[in-house]
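Sanity check

After download, print the first record. It should look like this:
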Amino acid sequence: MQIFGTCKRGLRLRLARQAPPVMLEAVTVWYDSGCPLCRREIALMRRLDRRGRITFVDAVGPDAASPIDRAEILARFHPREGDRLLSGAEAFAAMWRAIPLLRPLGILAGWRPLIPAFEWAYRRFLRIRPLLQKLLS
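Expected structure tokens:
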């Protein structure tokens, strides 16, 4: 909807009404606290998540309830966004969308035509993950 007004000089101005804010789905992230790389990543995400939109669950903890097999949760990154359990690159996109600073990257990473490219990059990362873990421990 557009609203018209007049400024002091008599010029007619057209103002666009802002769309209502988009409500984001709650995000729950399962992570491996035994992985030094994962701990660093989650520590960074916690600092950036100033609005507390993400619930972080230590998948290694004795009381951790997991929606799927624990080994699968630890092998690939898994969050739940709303009622959808995600994995891999789409999982990172969901987490990034929940953090205002990273939301543009999350929207881009969740865009259907780009998901295969982000998933390809994530699979390449998984290949070097053990090396990175050794370097950080």
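If your output differs, re-run the checksum step. Summary of this record's structure: The longest strand covers residues 2-6.
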